[in-house]
Amino acid sequence: MGRLRLMFTLLLMLGLLPGAGIASAQEEETPEPCSAVEIPDAAAPPTQRAALRPITLFMGFIPNVQFAPLYVAAEKGYFAEEGIDIRFEYGDENIGLELLAADELQFAVVSGEQVVLARAREMPVVYIFEWFQQFAVGVVAPVAQGIVEPEDMAGHVIGIPGRYGASWIGFSALLNAAGMAEGDLGGIEPIGFAATEAICAGRVDGAVVYISNEPEQIRAACSEVDVIPVAAYADLVANGLVTNERTLAEAPDLARRMVRAMARGVADAISDAETAYALSRVYVENLAEDDPVQMKVLENSIALWDAEALGYPQPGYTDPASWTLTMTTLLDMGLIDAPLDLSGACTNALLPPLDEAE
Amino acid sequence: MTAIGRRCLAAPCRLWVYSPAPSVFGNRAGFLLMAEQTIVRQFVRADATPHAGRDRLRWARWAVSPLLAVALLLAWHAVTASGAVKPFIIPPPAAVFDALGAALANGSLLYHAQVTLGEVLIGLALGLTTAVSLGYLLAKAPLVERLLAPYIVGLQAVPIVAIAPLFIIWFGSGAPSKVITCALIVFFPMLINTVVGVRQVEPDLRDLMASLDATRWQTFRLLEVPAAMPVLLGGLKVSATLSVIGAVVGEFVGASAGLGFLINLARSTYDTPLVFVAVFTLTIMALSLYGLVDWLEKRLLSWQQRRS
């Protein structure tokens, strides 16, 4: 028996030790996210160009007050000052990222986890400015449902846009962080992007939404609500500015100028919400002059952009740890097959120096 | 008429084949002959191709499609192998075959295809039943048509993609919302074809049935249904193909299963080969439904071929 145990132990050591060795070697070899993006002449001073360069910025939604910083930067001429003739294009963020990867576009505003998914398919996209400092997805529920903590979702039917995209990934991360499984819920109902209607019609008890927007719509339509932000439990990479490797290699200055203009827009929107709202009306067709719901949406969004208030080093800073967590979440969900080297997926190297940003 | 009714069986041309002796029907025989000529003119396809030519055509029909498929496959491979197009935009055929193998092996493709096919078949049945019933009513009652036509055309003008999200709210995210989307999309072509099919029955033949004291049921069964059948089957071909689109539109908006969901899932993870697999599966589904109707058409309208 003792011999058998010895043999078993030896076999176990033979089997596990090399594996453990590989695992530890992988851990050692895996570079930190956002650490390996090389930016040529990163220290060079910005250059002004005489003629404006037309640049299309793709945004993964419809014209909305949540894009106020970009509208502010455009209307105040921050893009023009950087030599950029900015044009906005809206649509499905998957398409935007594919166009970016194919170098049909140079810049897009998309959700961070999309960059990880795209990099897993060898798409050469790079995240360069974390505009939303916190992941903007959360669970909203009418107060009567009593859903104020993730554990309160047990037994309740939760609506989701679908089993894909930022909302689904954020929701999975939330369940995971709370130690819950799908089976603990009363059910998951795909409701598309009709959370307000579904909640107000009583079809679902709660819904996964963008926390700056839908909670205000539901409050206005039918009920006071409670909101559980995913970011309070899992700090995933949020929406930000993304470019491609070719642009970074061939026109790093363009990327730097784009980031700078955007950072100024974010700063202005945070400091003066009313002006940001007014300037957004130029781009958002149906935005009324004084819509309190949309104003509240903007204020909620500002709370997610404010790096200083949220304790981040500077506006646009992306935390490598949030990339690792996002990747782990995607691995757990089976949306990517293996751990990725995210060192080239993102960078903080294009952010303006702190003194300049201030 | 009872005797003729029994003999007419399923197709109007059989009026001639089984036309009884003049002694039974007296001077109606000449009228029957005239009616037969009208029927033949209306239903029989001219087919004067000689045998050799027909053989060549048959060979071409069987050979050209596969050859075209092979040519397209080769062109696809050449484009992707040249590196002119990035694989996440158009994946190479080998990657799509790999994705197909994986989706078949883990059972996901079969599962999602079953879900979509179920929605398609129920939606098709619902849409066809409603469209044929209403279409017959409209064809027979012009007043009803005048009253309902604006609403029916208006319904058709509503973009399905715009109201599909509302169906999720009204009917839930399960199969009913997809079935209704599917039924709505097949409804209009079938309705129009039913109206046209019933209305195009030759007045002479209606007169003939009337002169033979045919009941409404006999006229419906022995004249209208066979006479309208070619047009109805034409509508069914269009509807069968559209029904797949209807189900997928519903699944795109909100679903947990089905090929539309699979496409959304694959799109969200930039898995373009899997998108291709799902799209090809949908294409095969639509082609199969079309082929089924085509086969049905050959069976039901075989009398046309025999007459020729």
Q: What does this protein look like?
A:
The complex is a heterodimer of chains A (358) and B (308). Chain A has 358 residues and is α/β, with parallel strands linked by helices. Chain A has two domains: 203 residues, D-Maltodextrin-Binding Protein, domain 2 (3-Layer(aba) Sandwich); 96 residues, Periplasmic binding protein-like II (D-Maltodextrin-Binding Protein, domain 2). Helix content of chain A is 43%, strand content 15%. Chain A is built from 15 helices and ten strands. Chain A has a five-stranded mixed β-sheet with strand order 2-1-3-10-4, sandwiched between helices. Chain A has a five-stranded mixed β-sheet with strand order 7-6-8-5-9, with helices on both faces. In chain A, helix 6 links the parallel strand 6 and strand 7. In chain A, helix 2 packs across helix 11, helix 5 crosses helix 14 and helix 10 crosses helix 11. Chain A is globular and about 55 Å long. The N and C termini of chain A lie far apart (72 Å). The N terminus of chain A is likely disordered. With 308 residues, chain B is mainly alpha-helical. Chain B has two domains: 36 residues; 216 residues, Orthogonal Bundle (MetI-like fold). Chain B has 15 helices and no strands. In chain B, helix 9 packs across helix 10 and helix 12 packs parallel to helix 13. The two termini of chain B are 27 Å apart. Chains A and B meet through helix 4, helix 5 and strand 7 of A and helix 9 and helix 13 of B.
Q: Secondary-structure blueprint of this entry?
A:
The complex is a heterodimer of chains A (358) and B (308).
Chain A: H1 2-29, E1 53-59, H2 68-75, H3 78-81, E2 84-90, H4 93-101, E3 107-110, H5 112-120, E4 125-129, E5 137-142, E6 157-160, H6 165-177, E7 187-190, H7 195-200, E8 206-210, H8 214-221, E9 225-229, E10 240-244, H9 245-250, H10 252-271, H11 273-280, H12 292-305, H13 307-310, H14 320-333, H15 354-357
Parallel strand pairs in A: 1-2, 1-3, 6-7, 6-8
Antiparallel strand pairs in A: 3-10, 4-10, 5-8, 5-9
Chain B: H1 2-8, H2 14-17, H3 22-25, H4 28-43, H5 51-81, H6 93-105, H7 108-140, H8 142-157, H9 160-171, H10 175-199, H11 203-211, H12 216-253, H13 259-268, H14 272-300, H15 302-307
Helix pairs in contact in B: 6-14, 7-8, 7-10, 7-12, 7-13, 9-10, 9-12, 10-12, 12-13, 12-14, 13-14
